[in-house]
Amino acid sequence: MSRVIGIDLGTTNSCVAIIENAQPSVIPNAGGYKTTPSMFAVTQDGKRLVGHLAKRQAITNARNSVYASKRLIGRRFEDPEVQKCIELCPYGIVRGQNDDPRIEVGGKAFTCTEIASIILREMKRVAEEYLGEPVQEAVITVPAYFNDPQRQCTKDAGRIAGLEVLRIINEPTAAALAYGFGKKTDEKVAVYDLGGGTFDISILEMSQGVIEVLATAGNTFLGGEDFDRRVVNWLIQHFSESDSIDLRGDAMALQRLKDAAEKAKCDLSQREAVEINLPFIASDDSGPRHLSIELSRETLEGLVHDIVSDTLKTVERCLGDAGLGAKDVDQVILVGGQTRMPMVQQAVADYFGKRPHKGVNPDEVVAVGASIQGEALTSEDQNLLLLDVTPLSLGIATFGGHFAKLIERNTTVPVRKAHIFTTTRDNQTAVKIRVLQGESETAAENDLLGEFVLTGIRRAPKGEPEIEVSFDIDANGIVSVSARDLETGKEQSITVNATGTLDEGEIQQIIEEHELYEVQAKG
Amino acid sequence: MKASVTWEGQGIAMRLGNDGSGSGAERIPHLAPGCDPARLSLTPAEGYLLSRIDGITPLALLRQIAALPAADVDRCLERWAKEGVVVWDEAGRKAARTLSVPQGRATPAAPGIDPSLDFPVEMQHRVIEFEACLGKPYHEILGVAPEADAKTIKQAYFGLSKQFHPDRYFRRNLGPYAARVERIFKKVLEAYELLSDPATRPEVQRELTAEPSAPPAAAEAQAAPAGAAPPDAAAALRLRARLASLGRQHRAHGDRRRKAKGFFESGMAAFKKERWLEAAGSVRLAIAFDPHNESYRSAFSDVQRKAHEERARVLLKEADGAYELGDYKDALRHYEEALHYRAFDAELSHKTGRLAWKLGADLRKAKDYAMAACELAPENALYHRTLGQIYKAAGLTANAKRELQTALRLDPKDVESRQELKAL
């Protein structure tokens, strides 16, 4: 029987794990690393590189090296966050035919789904090499705040990579699963996940081997890279003051600054100050210029202090959603490389009034949790059950452009919720049901998932007919909506199909292209 | 969902007639007349399944020939039945009505029990038993006492989740039980949500005492597929809808209270840092969001006092500055405004009144300020003299005389008052 792997598809690094002899273990790649950079590059001679290889050459090939593409997946080109990336990334981002952002490297525009699939394929390969057998099934994690299109794109990416995605689960949930694995205690756990590109906070309760998500909140555009960016900007500013050269337009320099910033940030978790040396970063009439400056931990903390404060505001909101106070939380788990920063640990400890849990590796815990969920779903003797939740509220548009939520976010699935609605005009014989997803009170500000019309309502004064609208979400997250006239029993319904940015034909086309490429690569 | 309930009811019943091995063997789906399958959104496998429905092929065979797991075949058909694409054999329906009462566990071929499924026979019995309880009061669904505490309710919910959450049977062939297990879980979840939410619990309790006999599951299962919901089912729906909206309202209130708390806390933080104006603003917002919170109100009077002092201090500083620069009008405006916050300040009242008089501005206002100063400090000769001078300027000689005399009585050495009196 084929084994199920768990993949943490991270913004900056990815990780794969599996259950072996009833114990989860993280699978190292050929280089012996337990995490693999989520990077993809095309070299001058058209060769494709993934992971460490891609990262290693990124400095000299900045324009054709893709990092942090997870920030773009499932978004529209107009999305302000896509626009922000266009400004900051050394690689080209162009508008695709489905209004999706596409990444131009090596003279070809790749969809973000495709880039994700390339990284997933690499993780699959890492697992297969280690296990010595093919792997076909996976549980993949996403940030809790990913919406349906983002989740669907990740699922599509899995399919393109030749994986059957059993389930998409939230990263913090996975972390809690890893923490709760083999534990018999009753606890309320907060998972504070500050990764490369996203911030998530989840509050979970575990008891009797059941893990229930109480609340989750986050920001898909706040993470360790923002820390790096602050340092990069600080370096740029310093250099423009000392040498009167603006490095912002120089892709190669930017890549070097980014690498140096990231390294300095990591080193400062251990040390009080580091020296940043970037020789030959630029040149002008007077010859080559070097950047050399000391960065202290204190300076770094000053640069990023507000980002850390922002995360705590989100924590506050999440606790409110769970109906808990900071003191009700029994255990705090830190996830994501950025939580290695002493200031972050201190801020979290101060907020909850307790030291965070040690003993989980923040880089690996998510993949471990994903593999545990894979095992829990497929193994015969299951002693762990995850009660997962829906990430965004669902409901219908009502009179006056309002949004009536039927299923609130953070509701456990599978679930059924019904509500009775009525007509707004006398002798109205039909109602239009517009199914929406989102958090805004205003219908127009939420995403339209689908719509249908229920006809044949008896002519009656407004407010008299009773129309029951019910929402069903099954265990796989598929949403179906039905409207039923309680008087006549007439009913209409739809099943909402989550769609990514690619349609079925495009996915098939990419799968074929990749197969072709694999053959070429081998030949 | 109603249609599928009925459908499942038939499912249980129909298998009574056969040997129990081929579940659903007698059920034959037909394409509904006049329906257009093109409007559906189907995967190729589903499309293939739809193309096999010819009014002859029974469900059991469809399960075998479809390129889908049996559970998915059932799910598709259930969905299409709901969407009106597929109708079931009329004979089957009659059978359902006559035979829809579960018989309990009797013989190996008990009703609806299918040992060939990847679902333990004892769990199949458990599902049938549980389905009979679905119409019962919520606490009975969870198997707890009506007055059970939050912890017991949660434990019961977790325990039942372990039995009925669909993930327990991931990719196993549960046949018709897949949808039924999911339906039970949803009901368990509903019971848990309503009983564990402090906003809905009392309402659930009230309904319990008012309506001791909730609609039994059988009534739900026998509802005609295209007919109206029975009245008690409709009532149950209405109750559920009401409970749901109660929960929502409660949460909305909770949101407001949380916001209020946030504002109050930042207000208090500002107060500690002696940023009085900011503190007052935040506490005012807290009261706006949670008007019934007494502690916010009592804190507000303290904060407000401090804020007023602060505001007055700033205004006085500006007024004095303007005065020194010779911009008397501006100084007067600031003094007047400061007086709003320092109505107890006799000296300020006097100063303001005097300035108003000297500027030849509104004499009535000048008089009011001076009078206020005299009331606050009745023994101050200077204030009475100023008031007298203002009266004099206004032509109210009698009043002017009275005030100047008072001033002179309080301070016999007051030369100016004496001269003013003489002039009068």
Note the main attributes of this structure:
heterodimer, A: 523 residues, alpha+beta, Substrate Binding Domain Of DNAk, Chain A, domain 1, six-stranded mixed sheet, B: 424 residues, mainly alpha, Helix Hairpins, 4 domains, 20 helices, 2 strands, disordered N terminus
Structure in words:
The complex is a heterodimer of chains A (523) and B (424). Chain A contains 11 helices and 27 strands. Chain A has 523 residues and is an alpha+beta fold. The longest helix of chain A is centred in the middle third of the chain and has 26 residues, at 297-322. In chain A, a hairpin with a 3-residue loop joins β20 (394-398) and β21. In chain A, α3 (112-131) packs across α4 (148-160), α6 (224-243) packs antiparallel against α8 and α8 packs parallel to α9. Chain B has 424 residues and is mainly α. Chain B is rod-shaped, with a radius of gyration of 42 Å. The model of chain B is unreliable at 1-25, 91-109 and 211-231 (pLDDT under 50). Chain A binds chain B through residues 166, 207-210, 212, 316, 320, 323, 376-378, 382, 385-387, 405-406, 408, 412, 414-420, 466, 468, 470, 472, 474-475, 480, 482, 484, 486-493, 495, 497, and chain B through 1-3, 41, 79, 82-84, 154-155, 158-159, 161-162, 165-168, 170-171, 182-183, 185-186, 189-190, 224, 226-229, 234, 237-238, 240-241, 244-245, 248, 251, 254-255, 258, 262.
